[in-house]
Amino acid sequence: STLPYVIKLADQGLKALEQDAALEKGLNIKAGQIVHPAVMEVFRDLI
């Protein structure tokens, strides 16, 4: 279920990513830049 992650993000904001490796691995874009390797692969022309 995604609800625990949604609650954690709502309560802690971006700090939740620092404390939860699963959330951090799911991050696709940070500060306007693509950071997820699989997403980078698909959208090479945007990097």
Characterization of the model:
This protein is mostly helical and 47 residues long. The protein has one domain (3-46). The protein has 4 helices and 2 strands, in the order H-H-H-E-E-H. It has a two-stranded antiparallel sheet. The longest helix has 10 residues, at 3-12. It is elongated and about 35 Å long.
Short characterization:
With 47 residues, the chain is mainly alpha-helical. The protein is built from four helices and two strands. The chain is elongated.
Element layout with pairings:
Blueprint: H1 3-12, H2 15-19, H3 21-25, E1 29-30, E2 33-34, H4 37-42
Antiparallel strand pairs: 1-2
List keywords for this structure.
single chain, 47 residues, mainly alpha, 55% helix
Q: Terminal Cα separation, in Å?
A: 32 Å
Work out the helix count: 4
Q: Could you tell me the radius of gyration in angstroms?
A: 12 Å
The geometry reads as elongated
Range of helix content: 55-70%
Work out the number of β strands.
2
Mean pLDDT: 93
Main-sheet strand order equals 1-2
Low-pLDDT residue spans: none
| N-to-C SSE string, H for helix and E for strand | HHHEEH
Main structural class: mainly alpha
Major sheet details = 2 strands, antiparallel
Total domains, how many? 1
Strand content: 5-15%
